[in-house]
Amino acid sequence: SKDKGGGVFHAYEPQLHVRAEERRVLEMALRKALEKNEMHLAYQPVVDADSGRLTGFEALLRWESPEFGNVSPAKFIPLAEEARLIGPIGEWVMRTACLEAARWPDDIRVAVNVSPDQLQNPGFVTTVTSALAGSGLSAGRLELEVTESVFMHEGLGAIKTLERVLDLGIRLSLDDFGTGYSSLGYLSRTRFSSIKIDRSFVQAAAKGVREAVAIISAVVALAKSLGMATTAEGVETEAEHRMIQDFGCTKVQGYYFGRPLPVEEARELANRRMQA
Ligand code: C2E
Ligand code: CA
Ligand code: CA
Ligand code: CA
User: Fold this and answer.
1) Coiled-coil stretches, from where to where (predicted)?
2) Residues sharing a CB contact under 8 Å with residue 75, sequence separation 6 or more, in sequence order
């Protein structure tokens, strides 16, 4: 996101600079993308680290533009935030994810990414309530993913909104942990169910970078002592999976377990697992 700091592990994630002209043209197309039906959600499996059992999916937004092809969310989400389009797009994501997840088996959760700007809007609570009511999805099956930047810039407004959605019974995850301007204070003040360990740490630890190993161990220990789960992101190989199990992470996500899938395939995977 636009708020990422300049830490060592950032080197792995290329900064995406969109030039002014390209940006203007992209922004115009983005304004019309929803009404033109160019967006859909892909669902990446999230599995239990020890058993490999499917526990849910993370909803990831996809934009197939006739003009620009598949645009990465790492590029268009920041643009949508700047152009103040994240409100309607985020609302569409919330409704669609709830509707689609409501058709999965009862124990399969859905995680939805939420931008800080969405939490600035007091109407966010109504969006979540009506997405749940409109889909019949129980609150306990919805998880929201927010990043540390929520606590840096948005002040108390965002935190109040989070408290209100938490009271609905939904879960909250702290996404991309350690890549922003971290402060540990909010970890104890906000009711997170889990901390997501960014792919950059997983990849660096797998290469034997000692600092990354130390950070993952510390995050897992911290989460445990606070009664929170940990999800390791970006696990691509069997060796990385074993490493993550040794760290004692609760859940894993990554290409090794599955790429983001079209909704029908996600549903089939969830149903197959039920029969297994
Ligand atoms: P994120 O929330 O950290 O999502 C994880 C990203 O890592 C996804 O990229 C996913 O496809 C990718 N990924 C998962 N496993 C692996 C792996 O094993 N290896 C590698 N190299 N990558 C892996 P994606 O879908 O391109 O999304 C990028 C970012 O865009 C997301 O990062 C999130 O910050 C944002 N985003 C996506 N959808 C939404 C949305 O609906 N709303 C908001 N606000 N942001 C979204
Ligand atoms: Ca996420
Ligand atoms: Ca993440
Ligand atoms: Ca990330």
Assistant:
1) none
2) 16, 18, 26
Helices and strands: H and E segment counts in the chain: 12, 9
pTM assigned to the model: 0.93
Pocket, ligand 1, Cβ cutoff 6 A: 44, 60-61, 72-74, 77, 93, 113-115, 175-176, 199, 233-236, 253-255, 260
The model's pLDDT over 160-180, given as tens digits with 9 standing for 90+, comes to: 899 999 999 999 999 998 887
C-alpha pair distances (Å), 93 with each of 13, 152, 165: 24, 24, 16
Burial class, 227, CB count within 10 angstroms (exposed 0-12 / middle 13-18 / buried 19+): exposed
Check: complex ipTM more than 0.90: yes
The two three-digit tokens of residue 116, written as one number: 């800080």
Distance (Å) from CA 110 to ligand 2 centroid: 11
Query: DSSP code of 118?
Result: H
